[in-house]
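Technical appendix A lists one of the benchmark inputs used to test multi-chain prediction within the project. The record comprises two sequence entries:
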Amino acid sequence: MSQPDSVMVAGFLLALDRCYQAETHMWVLPKGRGQVRIGMDALGIETSGALAHLSFVAIGAQLTAGRPFGQLEAAKFVGPLVSPVSGVVLATNAEVGMDAGLAERDPYGAGWLIEASLPEAPAGLAGLLTDPAEITSWFAARIARYRLKGLIAS
Amino acid sequence: MAETLRVIDFGPSTPLRSQTLWHAIGYGVSAGAPVTLSFARPAAPYVCLGYHRPTDEVDLGYCRANELPVLRRMVGGGPVYLDADQLFFQICLPAAAVPPVRQQALRTLLEPAVAAFRAVGIRAELGEDLEISVDDRKICGHGAGQIDEAVVVCGNLIERFDHDRASRVLSVASPAQREQTLALMRRFVAATPVDPVAFKEAMVRAFGAGLGLDAVPGELTGAESAALVRLDQEFTSDNWLSGPRRPVPGDSTRPRACQVKVRAGVWTLGASHDGTEVAAGVVRGTVAEVRLSDRELNGLARQAERAVTGLPVRAVPRVLATFGDAGRRLAAVFAAASPERLL
């Protein structure tokens, strides 16, 4: 699904209206008043394999950057969804909880994962990639690296 | 000098410990313990759910009546029946040592297991679906997960397989679906009755060689033993057994579907709603066998069943809909019973 501020990078959709955590492929979309929406980018989804289940911590739970806010299951492999920010969970996406494939079909839109408030915004976004040129360059380099290693299809 | 592959054979273990022992290793490896290959054999039968699976996929009444504990594991996959005729293995590594693409990680960590099966004379293959099979029969159940900062991949050597009980513990929509599940399990899940000692030795050699590590017998660290006590409590708590929070579908009028995955590409599908019932066995996307009933089918059930047998799942609702009002109800129930990716 296309987004207004998005580009195709080597076959993968990339939304440029948000920030990214480079290691985890999580995106963070500021929504104003210190609130953000969080999801996983198309490359992160691709490298996870066909998504079977997504589960999240409860609304109101504390988020810590670098720690899990839920679990993702693909190919019988359960692994953590790692938070790119610290804050408090305001909402979880029930639709994607019932149909994990939504995150594959629309990773930057309806396939969002959680919403959170960041007490220290905008400082809470420190360490994330924010510049569209920098994001595009990072994303392209990641794709090239994964393809070179044979981890994703050419 | 190569680093160490710690090998721990827990031997016969209670159902609870056959799970918590290797989860404790996950925390140990996260904290710096060596890569570990462990083995355990359940001393008594039980049922175990994958991390995300709801408890209603298991026939809890049957399990209670037959004194089968129901546990939950931190790795993926569906509900499975375990007993003393299955030898379980677990390989546990630091997450940073595992390829970042999960399917690649699974392939890397299942290939030594395949080599071990071959070393004891089993023509095992690792398929594109990442299942270990001989021809088209699955011979090893596996699951994987990240526990703290460690990745663990589990599997089993099935010396004998109780197909009846393995199908009986599952919650299904109807007796017809249960029959189909049992038939497909018998057809597509096979035991490989080899010497378990030889298999364990082959596993140690294969994982040592595959990971470039020197195998050394070991035991739990003090920290792992402490984690084990905590996990024994956690894994028997209602909170853990109920599993992660999951959203409740808003549409309560939708037929409740029971989908049983027998192996990759082999399913039974069942659902009933207001007197209309479907049960189907599906092999590689095609209906292999189907039972249909509806109060107004008026003797056309066999004809409708013949019409859809052999068809791709996605074509079935359209064909059923040609059988009048009853056919349209059956089409709706069949669609509700089917995984979206097959429609």
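The first strand of chain B starts at residue 4 and ends at 13. Chain B touches chain A at residues 50-52, 74-77, 99-106, 130, 142-146, 151, 244-247, 249, 340-341 (CB under 8 Å). Comparable benchmark entries are summarised in Table A2.
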